[in-house]
Amino acid sequence: MTIKVKDLTNFIERLAPLNSQEDWDNSGLQVGDKEAEVKGVLMAMDLTDQAASQALLTGKNLIICHHPFFFQGLKSIDFSTYRGSLIKKLIDNSISVYAAHTNLDKAVGGVNHSLANIFPLKKLENISDYYEGEIGSLGEIEEVSFADFKKILDENFKDYRILGRKNESIKKIAFIGGSGAFGIKMAKELACDALVTADIKHHDSQLAYELGLSLVDLGHFQSEFPALINLKELLQEEFTDLDIDVFTDPVFF
Predict the structure, then answer these.
(1) pLDDT value at residue 251
(2) Handedness of CA 162, 164, 166, 172 (dihedral sign)
(3) Does residue 252 surpass a pLDDT of 60?
């Protein structure tokens, strides 16, 4: 059976509708032809020259990214520039690129659910249940000491930073994959003991300390990467004969 680009993008958009993305976002088809037959898929956090080269090397003609390649309009496509040469490579080799960003952040089974489900949860909710339109998830685990909470982190993540207040015990946790400092006050108001996120700056950490909130900064890539694995599994279940790989090189942290 022929699988077209639009078959995969329609499936993703049923999970993560484009109209749910933030106003400033640019999820959707970035480059290519929705009618093109898909020979293979490469999942990647970002569209980079390395990801495009990997797609070429492994015979993939559709790259599904989390972060859009285009956020602002282009005034020119100069092949001598990094972006221009990358666009040329994609077009010359008939590689389509699709991005699912904040719509995937908000989706059930998306970025924040995928991150939260790494933890041994008893309960999982959305922050939007309490703050309309906000991104993030809320989970509860069996109450553990901070040392045991750190063991959970050590078992599942390579590198991370503990910031803010080191609470004696952890039970309720907020999860915001990617840059989630905006959720510090919300997490505290929702009686969370910790916020697991990324891209925490010094003053964010100071605020969390003052509020009595533990912060776990996983780094941007690591906090969102579980969503790529989960989306791959969902696509593989739907398109059983399709060759799908995940590009694991974190070019940006």
Answers:
(1) 61
(2) negative
(3) no
Q: Are 169 and 177 in contact (CB under 8 A)?
A: no
Under 8 Å CB-to-CB from 174, ≥6 apart: which residues?
Answer: 127, 136, 137, 138, 183, 186, 187, 190, 192, 194, 195, 196, 197
* Whole-number percent of the chain with pLDDT over 70: 98
**Is the pTM higher than 0.85?**
yes
Q: How many angstroms separate the CA atoms of 218 and 164, rounded?
A: 14
What's the confidence (pLDDT) of residue 132?
A: 92
Any bridge partners for residue 162, and if so which? 216
To 10 degrees, what angle do helices 220-238 and 5-15 make? 120
pLDDT at 94: 98
Cα–Cα dist 54/17, whole Å: 28
